[in-house]
């Protein structure tokens, strides 16, 4: 009995004297830890006679509860005192600037994609999309590539394992399959009123997206971005294509005087086909658009081949149009001076912090807010 009273007096004194949380914890372990004084007393209960246990049990348990409560109370006191001391020492200075927070940035490719969409939107184009995993029909056959056409090899296609239907799907090698998907939907709208959700021609869309080719060097990566364009209407001709692309280039590069030229080319899905070059200067190592005597190819285009219009169920005698396709990353490199295309997809946040854009900038280059 006196033992218990002594122990309690001793522990109370040590708790009251504990000057910090570490000292208090030492006392807690000495009393209530596995081999602590009170824990050892509790263990002796097992060896006592029932009468003894009935007498001692409440005493020891009561001691344990009082000591635990006074440790908890002292802990609160010490914590409050520590906070008071910290506040008194002025450690919390609300007038200090907040530590810098890392802000996200818009990737240049996405910025340029948004800028391009903004320019074409002003001309009345809307955005259409298609799947990254395509089938042979949309990526090649419907675009007039015959089965053994060398362009199928040239495209260095990533093929997937054949599906349950036996068909070998592929990662689209260009955004041109979007043309097929849009035209076939438009045809449904013309022929079957129950599908009236689909818009009938005229069609005026751009189709941005990721494309894939097995290729890698300073100007090629296995995944990159293209933007397709398609206009289908009555009486569309090459002059419309030239005007549209000229207007786009001037607006996109924010330069009125950019000179462009069309060079004859071949694509299976356009006839006639052309590539468009912009005037540039390469003499200083970097490419400068809008001056000098060099040319840089930036896109392909032409009049949609009648076979394409036909395979999409439209009558080529009634509907004609033009199409074009351009590399978004390529235009981003040109406009913002990105040196190596591979860094663009290197996922290095330092690169992004340097070349990225604020998420709050207006992508429309004509708005003056960008
Ligand atoms: N699909 C072509 C490519 O990947 C680019 C292209 C050229 C798209 C001419 C077109 C076009 O729509 O008319 O190289």
Number of strands: 10
What is the CATH architecture descriptor of the largest domain? 2-Layer Sandwich
Provide mean pLDDT, rounded.
89
| Main sheet attributes: strand count, strand direction, barrel closure | 8 strands, mixed
CATH superfamily membership of the largest domain:
Bira Bifunctional Protein, Domain 2
Q: What low-confidence regions span 5 or more consecutive residues with pLDDT below 50?
A: 192-197
| Overall spatial form | elongated
How large, in whole angstroms, is the Cα Rg? 38 Å
Bound compounds, each kind once, are: 3,4-dihydroxyphenylalanine
Number of helices: 13
**Spatial separation of the terminal alpha carbons:** 84 Å
Q: Into which percent range does the helicity of residues fall? A: 40-55%
- The third-level CATH topology of the largest domain is BirA Bifunctional Protein, domain 2
The figure for the number of domains is: 2
User: What order do the helices and strands follow?
Assistant: HHHHHEEHHEHEEHEEEEHEHHH
Label the structural class: alpha+beta
Class of the largest domain in CATH? Answer: Alpha Beta
- Beta-strand share of residues: 15-25%
Care to give the gist of this entry?
The protein is an alpha+beta fold and 370 residues long.
């Amino acid at each position: 009995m006196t033992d218990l009273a002594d122990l309690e007096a001793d522990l109370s004194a040590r708790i009251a004297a504990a000057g910090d949380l570490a000292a208090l914890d030492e006392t807690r372990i000495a009393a209530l830890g596995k081999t602590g004084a009170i824990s050892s007393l509790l263990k002796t209960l097992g060896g006592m006679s029932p009468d003894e246990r009935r007498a001692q049990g409440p005493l020891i348990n009561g001691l344990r509860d009082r000591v635990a409560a006074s440790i908890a109370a002292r802990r609160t006191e010490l914590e409050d005192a520590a906070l008071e001391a910290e506040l008194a020492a002025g450690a919390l200075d609300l007038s200090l600037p907040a530590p810098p927070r890392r802000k996200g940035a818009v990737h240049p490719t996405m910025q340029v994609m948004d800028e391009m969409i903004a320019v074409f939107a002003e001309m009345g184009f809307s955005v259409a999309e298609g799947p990254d995993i395509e089938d042979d029909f949309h990526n090649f056959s419907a675009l007039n590539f015959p089965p053994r056409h060398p362009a199928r090899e040239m495209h260095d296609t990533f093929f997937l394992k054949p599906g349950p239907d036996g068909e070998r799907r592929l990662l689209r090698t260009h955004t041109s399959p979007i043309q097929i998907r849009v035209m076939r939907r438009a045809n449904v709208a013309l022929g079957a009123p129950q599908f009236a959700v689909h818009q009938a021609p005229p069609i005026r869309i751009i189709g941005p997206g990721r494309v894939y080719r097995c290729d890698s060097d300073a100007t090629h990566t296995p995944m990159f971005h293209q933007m397709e364009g398609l206009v289908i209407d009555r009486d569309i001709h090459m002059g419309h294509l030239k005007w549209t692309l000229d207007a786009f280039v001037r607006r996109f590069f924010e330069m009125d005087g950019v000179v462009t030229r069309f060079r004859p080319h071949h694509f299976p899905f356009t006839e006639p086909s052309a590539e468009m070059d912009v005037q540039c200067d390469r003499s200083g190592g970097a490419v400068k658009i809008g001056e000098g005597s060099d040319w840089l190819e930036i896109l392909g285009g032409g009049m949609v081949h009648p076979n394409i219009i036909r395979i999409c169920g439209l009558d080529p005698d009634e509907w004609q149009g033009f199409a074009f396709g351009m590399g978004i990353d390529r235009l981003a490199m040109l406009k913002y001076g990105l040196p190596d295309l591979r860094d663009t997809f290197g996922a290095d946040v330092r690169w992004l912090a340097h070349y990225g854009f604020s998420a709050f900038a207006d992508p429309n280059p004509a708005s003056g807010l960008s």
